[in-house]
Design goal:
Chain A: Keywords: Cell membrane, Membrane, Transmembrane, Transmembrane helix, Transport. The complex is a heterotrimer. Chain B is an alpha+beta fold. Chain B has two domains: about 160 residues, Rossmann fold (3-Layer(aba) Sandwich), CATH 3.40.50.300; about 130 residues, OB fold (Dihydrolipoamide Acetyltransferase, E2P) (Beta Barrel), CATH 2.40.50.140. Chain B is built from eight helices and 20 strands. The model of chain B has no long low-confidence stretch (mean pLDDT about 90). Chain C has a single domain, classed as Orthogonal Bundle (MetI-like fold). The chains are: A mainly alpha, B alpha+beta, C mainly alpha. Chains in contact: A-C, B-C. The complex binds adenosine-5'-triphosphate and magnesium ion.
Chain lengths: ~280, ~375, ~325
C-alpha cells in the first residue's frame, strides 16, 4: 500500500462504518441530556442510574450465569464433536452429524427458538421435565446453538494440527485417552479458550431464542435491553454499552499483551536453542 | 564432470564479436531489501538466441535478478535494457518477456488449454488463431491429449510442460525460466533438458535459465554466469567455467577440485612455477596469468586430470609429482574416486576411469601411490 | 501370565473403543434431541389446530375407544389449513418475498463493503494482517443489540445523520431514515459484515501471489487480472460469506423489529407475532416450516462448501 488508493479508502470506510456508531454510543453515554443525539454537557449520571436499576442488574447476573454454564457445556460437547469430525474417520451417521453441526451456524434464530420451545413443552407433557421454563431451558438452548460454533473452531484447529504428533505418541505406547490429555488437549487449548469466549458472547447476546424458551422470572439481560430499546432511546443503555466496550477492550488488550509476551518468550527460546545447538 | 554439452558448438559466439549488440543489457544493477543487498552491482550482456544460465547457491540472488528482468521488482540502482529499450517503469504486462515460474503458477481454475490461451487472449488475438496456436504448442510439448484437464489432474512433469507452453505461446523474444526442472526426477529432468534445448533452437528464443544444478547449467547453456552473494563471480562458456575458473569460489562451486596453497617461485612466459608445502612438490603450470614471485596463490587441479600409478615414475624432474597413501576408494561404475593422503596430511581426490575389470584391482586400500599431472592441468588462482 | 496380559490388553482396547463411542455419542445424542427432534415436533404441530388450552394446540393422534363395540382405534388428524392460510394470505407471501429481498440486498451490501476490505487486508504486509482482521472481528464481541441500538441514534430524525445533513445544508429539516427499509439494510449490513469478511479474507489470503505475477507476465493488466484470476479463485469465499449472511438474514427478527417501520414485513417478525401476539402456535410452526423450505437449498449449499473447506484444511 504505497499510494493511498482505492483499497486504502475502502478499508478506511469499512472501519469507519464499523467503529463510528460504537464511538458515538460511548460519547453520548456521558451526555447530560436525555436526548442522545444532542450534546448538552458532560455527566456521569446515567452510570449512577444504571447502577441502581435493579431489574437490569438482576437480569445481567442471570445472563452471566447462563452464559458461563452454557459456554462450559458447549466447550465439552463441541470438543467431542470436533474430535469426532477430524480424528475418527468415517463412522455411521457422520454425514448427518456434520450437518447437525453446521446447520445451527446459519439457522434463523426464530426457528431455533420456536422449535426448542415446542420440544420443552412436549417433553414437559410426556416426561414431566423440564418443569416449566426458566434458567435450565435457556441454558440448554444456548448450549445447543453455541456448541456448533465451538465445534467448528476446534475442528479447524485440529485439522490444521499435525496429526502425526498424536500418532507418534501412540506409537510410543500412549493409550488414546492419555494421548488426548497429554498431547491433543494442550495443543488445542487456545482454541478451547477462544471457543469458550465465543460461546459466552453468543449466549450473552441472544435475545430471540431466550425470549422463546424463558419463563416468568427468568429474564435475561438482552431481553431487558430489547424491551427498553423498543420503548425508545435511553442513555442508560449507552452507559451499559460503554461498560461492555470497556470490558471487551480490556480483555483484548490483556490478551494481546499476553500473546506478545509469549511470542517474545518463544523467540528467545529459539535463539537459545540456536546458540546452544 | 559427467555432463556432456548437448548443444552443438555455436559457430558464432556473439559475445566475442564486438560488432554485435546485446539483446539484454544489465548495467550495474543493485537490489536491496531493507539493509540486505540481494543483487550487488551486476552487469551482464546477453545476446540473441543465447541459452544463458544463472548458476548459484541458494539465496545468491538469481530469482531476484530474473524478477527484475520480468518487471516484478524494480532495481534499486542501475539500468536494464531489453532490445535497446530502458525497462525502468515499464510494467510486466508491457514487456516483451515471458517467464516460467519456479512454482509454475498455473491458474488452477482454468483448463490446460485456457492456461495456454491466456496470454494470447490478453493481446486480443483472433479466436481461430488462438485455437491453432494453442493446439500447435500443446503438440510441441506432447500434451495434446490433456487440453481439457485442470492443473491438479496433471503430474509434476506435465504441469511443467504446460507452464513452458504457456510462456512460449506468445513467442516472446526472451524467455525467463526459474528453476524450470526443479520439481522433476533425474530421468525426466535429463529428457526435458534435451527438449528445452531443442525448442529453444527451433523457435530462436533467447533463454535465461536460473538453476542451482551445475550439471544442468553445463549441459544446456551457451554461457553461464556464476552468482555468489548477489555478485557475479564469473561469466563464460561451460568449458571456460570448468577449465579456467577465475577464482576459488567458481573452482569449488563447479565440480570437485583439489586446492594447493603455495607461493610463486618464478614466472617464465606464461609458465608459472609454484612451491607448495601442502602438495609436497613444486607445481609447474602452463598458460597461467603471470604473477610476481613470492605472491601467495592457490593451484587448482581437477581430480580427473591427475594420474595414479603404483610405481614411482622414473626420470621426472620432481615437479607435478607427489606420493601418498590410498585411504578411500569409491567405485561408481564408469569411474572410481580415490582419496589419497599425502605425507603433509592433505587429502587429494583423484578420479580414474575403470579401464580394466574391477576384480583385478590394480590399486587398493593402503597402497602407496604416485600422483602425476601435466602442466596444462593446473590453474593458478590469486587471492 | 501371558493370558492375563492378553486379557488386560484386549479389555483396555475395548475401553478405548468404548471411549471413542462415548466421545461421538454425547454430542450426537444432544444434537439429535435438541436439534433434530424439535424440527419433527414443529413439523407435527404445524398440522394441528389452535385451541384455547395449555399448550395451545390440538393433539395430532388420538386413541378413540368405542365402548359399545369394544374396539379402539388410533386416529390421526392432520390439519393442513395452516398451510392454506399461508398460501392464501397476501400478508405471508409478501413477508416471504420481502425477507428474501432484504436478505439479498443485505448480502450485496456486505459484499460491496466486505470484499474490498478483505482484499486490502489480504494484500497488506503480513505482520499487519492479524491486527487488521482483529479490528474487523472486534465489534462482534460487543452486544449485537447494542450495535443495533447505536444506529437508532444515528438514523432517527434529529439524529446524527439528520443533523449532519442539515448542518452541511443538503436538507433543511430533520430527515427520518429510521423505521424504513433502508434502516434495516444498514443495520443488518452492519451486524453481518464480519461474517462476510472472514471467509473472503481466508480465501484471498491463501491465493498464491505468483498467479497474479504470471498473469501480468502474460500481458494482463491489473484490473483484468483481478477479474480473470482473483475473482474466480475467491468464489468459494464469496459463496460461503454470502450464505453466512443471507440465510440468517432471511429469518432475521431483531433488526426489522427495532429499525424497520411497521410495513417492513419480514417473515421472522410474522412468526414472532403469530407466536407471541396471536398465540397461534400451529400457524407459527407452519411459518417456520415454510421458512425452512425456502432455506433448505441454501443451507445444503452452505454445508457442502463448509465440508469442502474442512477437507481442504486437512
Ligand atoms: N521480497 C524480499 N524481501 C526481503 N528479502 C528478500 C526478498 N526476496 C528475496 N530476498 C532475499 O534476497 C536473497 C536472494 O534471494 P533470491 O530469491 O534471489 O535467491 P535465489 O538465488 O533465487 O535462491 P534459491 O536458489 O534458493 O531460489 C535471499 O537472501 C532472500 O532472502
Ligand atoms: Mg530462486
Amino acid at each position: 500500500m504505497k499510494r493511498f488508493g482505492f483499497l486504502s479508502w475502502a478499508l478506511l470506510f469499512g472501519y469507519a462504518f464499523l467503529y463510528v456508531p460504537i464511538a458515538l454510543l460511548v460519547v453520548f453515554s456521558f451526555n447530560e441530556s436525555r436526548l442522545v443525539t444532542v450534546w448538552s454537557g458532560f455527566s456521569t449520571k446515567w452510570y449512577a442510574e444504571l447502577l441502581h436499576n435493579d431489574a437490569l442488574l438482576d437480569a445481567a447476573f442471570l445472563s452471566f450465569q447462563v452464559a458461563a454454564v452454557s459456554a462450559t457445556l458447549s466447550v465439552l460437547l463441541g470438543t467431542c464433536a470436533g474430535l469426532a469430525l477430524t480424528r475418527f474417520g468415517r463412522f455411521r451417521g457422520r454425514t448427518l452429524f456434520g450437518g447437525m453441526i453446521t446447520a445451527p451456524l446459519v439457522m434463523p434464530e426464530v426457528i431455533t427458538g420456536l422449535s426448542l420451545l415446542l420440544l420443552f413443552v412436549a417433553m414437559e407433557q410426556w416426561l414431566g421435565w423440564p418443569d416449566g421454563r426458566g434458567v435450565t431451558t435457556i441454558t440448554i438452548a444456548h448450549t445447543t446453538f453455541t456448541m456448533s460454533y465451538v465445534a467448528v473452531v476446534i475442528q479447524s484447529r485440529l485439522a490444521g494440527m499435525d496429526g502425526s504428533l498424536e500418532e507418534a505418541a501412540m506409537d510410543l505406547g500412549a493409550r488414546p485417552a492419555k494421548v488426548f490429555f497429554v498431547i491433543t488437549l494442550p495443543l488445542i487449548a487456545p482454541a478451547l479458550v477462544a471457543g469458550w469466549l465465543l460461546a459466552f458472547t453468543l449466549s450473552l447476546d441472544d435475545v430471540v431464542v431466550a425470549s422463546f424458551v424463558s419463563g416468568p422470572g427468568s429474564t435475561t439481560l438482552p431481553m431487558v435491553i430489547f424491551s427498553s430499546v423498543k420503548f425508545g432511546i435511553s442513555p442508560q443503555i449507552n452507559a451499559l454499552a460503554t461498560l461492555m466496550v470497556l470490558v471487551v477492550a480490556t480483555g483484548i488488550f490483556v490478551a494481546s499483551i499476553v500473546m506478545a509476551r509469549q511470542e517474545r518468550q518463544r523467540k528467545r527460546d529459539e535463539q537459545m536453542a540456536i546458540q546452544n545447538g | 564432470m559427467a555432463g556432456q554439452p548437448i548443444r552443438k558448438p555455436t559457430r558464432l559466439e556473439p559475445w566475442q564479436d564486438a560488432g554485435q549488440t546485446p539483446y539484454v543489457r544489465i548495467e550495474k544493477v543493485t537490489k536491496t531489501f531493507g539493509d540486505f543487498v540481494a543483487v550487488d552491482e551486476v552487469s551482464l550482456s546477453i545476446y540473441r538466441n543465447e541459452f544463458f544460465a544463472l548458476l548459484g547457491g541458494s539465496g545468491s540472488g538469481k530469482t531476484t535478478l530474473l524478477r527484475m528482468l520480468a518487471g516484478f521488482e524494480q532495481p534499486t540502482e542501475g539500468k536494464i535494457y531489453i532490445d535497446g529499450v530502458d525497462m525502468a517503469g515499464i510494467p510486466p504486462y508491457e514487456r516483451p518477456v515471458n517467464m516460467m515460474f519456479q512454482s509454475y503458477a498455473l491458474f488452477p481454475h482454468m483448463t490446460v488449454e485456457q492456461n495456454v490461451a491466456f496470454g494470447l487472449k490478453q493481446d486480443g488475438v483472433a479466436k481461430a488463431e488462438i485455437r491453432d496456436r494453442v493446439t500447435e504448442m500443446l503438440g510441441m510439448v506432447q500434451l495434446s491429449a490433456f487440453g481439457k484437464r485442470r492443473p491438479h489432474q496433471l503430474s509434476g512433469g506435465q504441469r511443467q510442460r504446460v507452464a513452458l507452453a504457456r510462456s512460449l505461446v506468445k513467442r516472446p523474444k526472451l524467455l525467463l525460466l526459474d528453476e524450470p526442472l526443479g520439481a522433476l526426477d533425474k530421468k525426466l529432468r535429463e529428457r526435458t533438458q534435451f527438449e528445452l534445448v531443442n525448442i529453444q533452437e527451433k523457435l530462436g528464443v533467447t533463454f535465461i535459465v536460473v538453476t542451482h544444478d551445475q550439471e544442468e547449467a553445463m549441459t544446456m547453456s551457451s554461457r553461464i554466469a556464476v552468482m555468489n552473494h548477489g555478485v557475479i563471480a564469473q561469466v563464460g562458456t561451460p568449458t571456460e567455467i570448468y577449465e579456467y575458473p577465475h577464482n576459488r569460489f567458481v573452482a569449488e562451486f563447479i565440480g570437485s577440485i583439489n586446492m594447493f596453497d603455495g607461493r610463486v617461485v618464478s614466472t617464465e612466459g606464461d609458465q608459472v612455477l609454484v612451491a607448495s608445502e601442502e602438495a609436497g612438490c613444486e607445481l609447474l603450470i602452463a598458460h597461467a596469468t603471470p604473477a610476481p614471485a613470492g605472491s601467495p596463490v592457490s593451484v587448482a587441479i581437477r581430480p580427473e586430470k591427475i594420474a595414479l600409478s603404483k610405481e614411482p615414475l622414473a626420470g621426472g624432474d620432481g615437479r607435478n609429482q607427489t606420493t601418498g597413501i590410498v585411504r578411500e576408494i569409491a567405485y561408481l561404475g564408469d569411474v572410481s574416486i580415490y582419496l589419497v593422503q599425502l605425507p603433509t596430511g592433505k587429502t587429494v581426490r583423484v578420479t580414474a576411469p575403470n579401464i580394466t575389470r574391477r576384480t583385478e584391482m590394480p590399486i587398493t586400500w593402503e597402497d602407496e601411490v604416485t600422483l602425476t599431472w601435466r602442466p596444462f592441468a593446473g590453474v593458478v588462482l590469486t587471492q | 501370565m501371558r493370558t492375563v496380559v492378553s486379557v488386560l490388553v484386549s479389555g483396555l482396547s475395548r475401553i478405548g473403543l468404548w471411549g471413542r463411542g462415548v466421545v461421538v455419542a454425547i454430542p450426537y445424542l444432544w444434537l439429535l434431541l435438541f436439534f433434530m427432534v424439535p424440527f419433527l415436533i414443529v413439523f407435527g404441530i404445524s398440522f394441528s389446530e389452535s385451541i384455547i388450552a395449555q399448550p395451545p394446540y390440538s393433539s395430532l393422534v388420538e386413541w378413540l375407544t368405542d365402548e359399545d363395540a369394544g374396539t379402539s382405534k388410533l386416529q390421526i388428524l392432520l390439519n393442513i389449513s395452516n398451510y392454506f392460510r399461508l398460501g392464501g394470505d397476501d400478508l405471508y407471501i409478501l413477508a416471504y418475498l420481502n425477507s428474501l429481498r432484504i436478505a439479498a440486498v443485505t448480502t450485496l451490501m456486505c459484499l460491496a463493503i466486505g470484499y474490498p476490505m478483505a482484499y486490502a487486508i489480504a494484500k497488506a504486509d503480513p505482520a499487519r494482517r492479524g491486527p487488521l482482521m482483529m479490528l474487523v472481528i472486534l465489534p462482534f464481541w460487543t452486544s449485537f443489540l447494542i450495535r443495533i441500538y447505536a444506529w437508532i441514534g444515528i438514523l432517527k430524525g434529529n439524529g446524527v445523520i439528520s443533523n449532519l445533513l442539515e448542518w452541511v445544508g443538503i436538507t433543511s429539516g430533520p430527515v427520518e431514515i429510521l423505521y424504513s427499509d433502508w434502516a434495516v439494510y444498514i443495520g443488518m449490513t452492519y451486524c453481518y459484515l464480519p461474517f462476510m469478511v472472514l471467509p473472503l479474507y481466508s480465501t484471498l489470503e491463501k491465493m498464491d501471489p505468483s498467479l497474479l505475477e504470471a498473469a501480468a507476465d502474460l500481458g494482463s493488466r491489473p484490473f483484468k487480472s483481478f477479474l480473470s484470476i482473483t475473482l474466480p479463485l475467491s468464489l468459494p469465499g464469496i459463496i460461503a460469506g454470502s450464505l453466512l449472511v443471507f440465510i440468517p438474514a432471511v429469518g432475521e427478527f431483531v433488526t426489522p423489529e427495532l429499525l424497520g417501520g411497521p410495513d417492513t414485513l419480514m417473515i421472522g417478525r410474522v412468526l414472532w407475532n403469530e407466536f407471541f401476539a396471536n398465540r397461534d402456535w400451529p400457524v407459527a410452526s407452519a411459518v417456520a416450516i415454510a421458512l425452512l423450505l425456502v432455506l433448505v437449498v441454501p443451507i445444503m449449499i452452505f454445508q457442502h462448501v463448509q465440508g469442502k473447506q474442512a477437507e481442504a484444511g486437512r
